[in-house]
Fold these 3 entries.
Entry 1:
Amino acid sequence: MALTGIEIYKKLPRTNCGDCGVPTCMAFAMKLAAGQAELSACPHVSAETAAELDSASAPPIRPVTIGTGDEAFKIGGETVLFRHEKTFINAPGIGVLVTDEMSDDDVDGKIDRLNKLQYERVGLILKGNIVIAKSVKGDAGAFEALAKKVAGATSKAIALIADDPAVLSQAAKAIADKKPLIGFATESNADAMAELAKELDVPVIAKAKGIDAASELTKKLTDAGLKDIVIDTSPDNIKEALFDQVAMRRLSIQKAERTVGFPTILFPSEMTDNPIKEAMYAGTFITKYGGIIALSDIQGETLFPVTVARMNIYTDPQRPMATTQGIYEMNNPEKDSPILITSNFSLTYFIVSGELEASRAPAWLLVIDTEGLSVLTAWAAGKFVADAIGPFVKKIGIEEKIGKKQLIIPGFVASISGELEEELPDWDIVIGPREAAYISSFLKQLN
């Protein structure tokens, strides 16, 4: 049975040193009990206490770090079934699959797209994370060459997959400094794979058909001394994959079944040869509950919606998504171009900026920090009101860029126009449309 925060606190050093990154031992104990921290963060816990607390304080889904350096990412560590219960913590890695049967041009193209394709949205960079290199030929030399090629072409995390431990070993040792995720450990080669994973100190993929077999395999690997495991239940189709993902998450969180309490890896390309369906499957696995999702290729039309879905699912629902406060130039504005203002709620910003871009009308868009609240909500909370907007307009620096002081406010907050005229006496306050969809026609009439 999991220990409570008080029970864990009694076993900690209770020095309140803050070396764990949390101000007090009590706060650290509460995080451990909630699965939001790892015991290894405390450098003062004795080996005996660490052994006693390790299983009790570990998250239901073990966190596993893939890769090294700035491109390393963490999967697992989850504590809830549904994001609205608290939040999801570590977003899944999106990867591209390459094999030793592919031509150099194909491999180079996939890696190049993975390296270059990225998108900025609400201050976040959306991108892929990992190259999954797979041995199809069973040739150790060819697979080592592929591993070296991948390692030299990208700083992304790398996974190496081969059925034969000897083939895998040669490639993994050649790029050991990259700390690749290796696989597949199966029932027949578990001992050899465990030894290789321990030798290189890298995480391993446990592959078995179905949840029961995967549970038996992970127990065998953990008994051999491995902790960092990623599960592949080898589903044949989307139905099987979804069932396995949900069942393992429920078992690990609701039943504290440690043998399936590991992140997963999925290969939607093995379930369909349609790239659009593959992207749809990837979206399903982001929601329920993939750790790494290996795509057959990386293309903008599929990567963008998949990474946006990932961002939306793995954003804390208790914290609104916000755009950075500032001045945004739309369609190369000039001194006399109209000036609009809106809140920094990301959805509001993207709708307004999208309509402005579509209108092709040059304009200045001012975004004021409303703590991620929409215009009406921010107005009701006293954050999108005249005595906040006035000082913001004066300090943001827009007056240095323009020749015509005319500010267009959202029609839904027309009531603040009088007070805003008092705050900005040398400005002309114009009431804009209530809906962003009418911005284009409004600007045409304004001019």
Entry 2:
Amino acid sequence: MPVLPTAFFLLVILTMLQGCSHTTDIPSWIDLIERKPVKTVVVQGHRLAYLDEGQGEGPPVILIHGFGGSMWQWEYQQQALAASHRVITVDLLGSGLSDKPDIAYTPEEFLTSFTGFMDALGIERAALAGNSMGGGVATAMALTHPNRVDRLILIAGFPDHVKEKLTSKMTRRALDTWAPIWLVKLGSWFAGRGMTETVLEEMVYDHSRLTPAVIERSYRNRQRPGIIPAIMKTGRSLPLWEEGFARRLGEVRQPVLIIWGDKDAVFPPQVGRDLQKSIPGSALEVIPDAGHLPQWERPELVNPLILKFLR
């Protein structure tokens, strides 16, 4: 095909991508297992979306999603924890409903944004629960600002030597790719919901939980404007996690609960056992018949563990 028609074809496709993209407006509500009001706060000029549930006497708990995820991954913890705690569920900068600025998405930028988020909400100290990469953010907070972290709950992450311990070929390919962003956008548009379903099937052990509604909302999340560049830049900043924080896991002094799915296809259970050995005094709970999102897949087992640990 001649160069000019090919370039024109690509321009048309990219225009279609923009036309099919969701608006950057943040909705007032989000439909999880229950409809929840979405709140926003501006941190360093960027909007962060979050949920704020419960006014219990216990300390606040902030729930942090993983790489490429969003607040829906914590939908089964809202009601269970809100009876005794203030439960805050955030979409990190570059994810979900939050803004996706053109930045490098380094660990330091995540830390600055997260600290500013706590400041904006008037939270001096909180328990942090992080899933996968969210566990990395929580651990980095505990190491950098130990006086602001009461305790840590690390669900399926975040270990040292991340790329070496990954057993997910799909995730490894996503982290290793140096394809231009426009090409990745194009591939994402053509792959559509099928690719989203494939990703979820690797994350979740019990595929019967992946209903059309679950797949659809995850697909919509991955189609939000700006999310692909943010995900790619976050992945490319992983070496900075290794240099700045992974080597210091032994310095964590807060109480730590580690939760792992025994069928995790992203990081096998041995990674969780190694992580426990790296953090002095930490406890490990392995959840049967659960993948990389045990808090979503087996909340009836995970929620009592979280509540007991928080109390």
Entry 3:
Amino acid sequence: MDDSEFIREYDIREHKIWTMEEEKRGRVIQAALQEFSKGFAAANTDAIVNEAGISKGLLFHYFGSKRGLFLFLLKYGLNVGFAEYAKVISENCDCIENIRIVSEHAWRLFVKYPLVFGFLAKAQSSINAVFPEGLPRDMPSSPHMLARYICQRSNNDPSRFKEGVDAERAQNIIVWTLNGLSESCLMKYGDDVASYKKRFEEIAREQEEYLGMLRKMLYR
């Protein structure tokens, strides 16, 4: 199936799904998030259309293919997440403090948007297989891009860092450390969302230890 029309760069605000009646659109998105939370391979488009109460032809009219729907959900989920994170990131705080603030906020968002964050957690392990050619260029090349986003929106005053510490390189160290922690969690728990929920406090404590070490190493 040629789904190139849908597997490309686009602004999610311009997606044709927004022309659909709001109530029906909500059913489609909710049903798709729920089904893809099983994993891409296990997700069934028949189950999605049955739950949403639409035809399969209409689903593919809007998304082109199962991959097209998956890409839309990635964009949708990241848009929801980053909009929420932007509310708590302070330009007056350094990136380590903002990372701590966002991490505390993350659990509340998981409770507030269980389908969105459950889908995003599950999706990470299948992105490479679903898009062997790589994600469209407007999508982050790495699923663990939150730390970079936080650093970009934080107060990066070079005077905060110890003498001889380059601010940009210091941010790279922070990002790489947190991405490494994320990769470690992925190796331990895979895409089992329930395991992450059970160990959330344990993971948060480990991250806090790393953040403390980074602050001692890099900041005045």
